[in-house]
Design a protein that fits this description.
The structure is a single chain. This protein is globular. It has a domain at 1-82 and 196-240: Rossmann fold, CATH 3.40.50. The strands form three sheets. It has a six-stranded mixed sheet. Helices cover 35% and strands 25% of the residues. The chain is α/β, with parallel strands linked by helices and 240 residues long. Helix 4 crosses helix 6 and helix 6 (146-160) packs parallel to helix 7. The protein binds deoxyuridine-5'-triphosphate (DUT) and magnesium ion.
Amino acid sequence: TGVKGEVEFHNVSFSYEEDGNTVRDVNLHVKAGQTAALVGPTGAGKTTMINLLSRFYERDSGLILIDGGDIANVKKESLRKHMGFVLQDSFLFRGTVRENIRYGRLEASDDEVVEAAKLANAHSFIMKLPQRYETVLSQDGNGISQGQKQLLSIARAFLANPGILILDEATSSIDTVTELKIQDALQELMKGRTSFVIAHRLNTIQKADKIFVLEEGRIIEEGTNDSLLEQEGFYYRLHG
Ligand code: DUT
Ligand code: MG
């Protein structure tokens, strides 16, 4: 995959506008292969942290390191090649299912696309589409459900085989069967990769190696589910 996936933030601050800080002096360390959960109220800065790690925005100060190297010294395209994104609004484009899974990775064979779709639990629904892998999707994925869109973005991530995964868990309701397929595929996808999960499901949060609790751009607590519950702080009041 190219990177081991150790991630560090050192005194990182950022704001979208001149005034106010959206992310304030954040420090975090996630070892290669670990799962980090970002939790906290709306507007706390969870998505912004991910935006900074993937350089959709540039930090104002501090350091962000991957495997000890400053991400500011890496081309954005090379940086994102090592990252897989499974987001709430998975980004589909107008094109066939196959093209959407391949996502510009022209070297991937048709067999590899199908293999990735199978790993993502997406193959069976794809085979029921009118033209199967050749079915043309519109940008908003007409004719397929929210959950199926997520399965496609998981297939894309399997094919890309990134060292670092970014997951933004759905808050919208997805039918139980698809939800189980998503959970099962994600568990497999996360194996051996550093994962940052903007977590809403209690189950995901509890299983994380490290939970970071954000409030108003700061990390106010961090630890495992057990250690945070013991602390009886903010996390305890949210989830205890
Ligand atoms: N913000 C902006 N401009 C943007 C995005 C966000 O000013 O383009 C502000 C809104 C909020 C703060 O930054 O006050 C943090 O937003 P973020 O989206 O990071 O919060 P979140 O923790 O991801 O919230 P949610 O749980 O609602 O997704
Ligand atoms: Mg967000």
